[in-house]
G-protein coupled receptors family 1 profile domain-containing protein
Amino acid sequence: MYLTTVFGNLVIIMAVSSDSHFHTPMYFFLANLSFADICFTSTTVPKMLWNIQTQSKVISYEGCVTQMYFFLLFAGLDEFLLSVMAYDRVVVICHPLHYMVLMNPQLCALLVLVSWIMIVSLFYCTSLGVYLSSAVTQSSHASAVASVMYTVVTPMLNHFIYSLRNRDIRRALKRIIG
């Protein structure tokens, strides 16, 4: 599943960057979401796979803090990019004749930059509360299943949901693959 997630999202990034028909705000945001999904999945899954392979569940405190930082950073970035994508769709539906003027390249880049800035600032404000709060005891099996669903399955399905249902993306992929 991890390789499917990484490969699927890399294919989307490659298709969007290589075909000039996809140099539109919607696909710009989709490529950024694909990049964020690759990073999000790569923060935890390689360590999890290593732990399964070595039958070891040890992680250093510094490793844990670093992993949590990037996990929360990319999870939040996913949420903000999905919000920006929703805003893009609202503009195209409500103001179709002004869409290209309203969603110009500068605004698109600014929206992605603001997404990054917002998530970094939100992370620093809320992470303190997470680390200071007491841990709630849960079943470790239930936690593991929930973690896999959230960190692997959702990013794996994003590229199917947002792009492979799109006829233009499928045509571009056929051209790229041959």
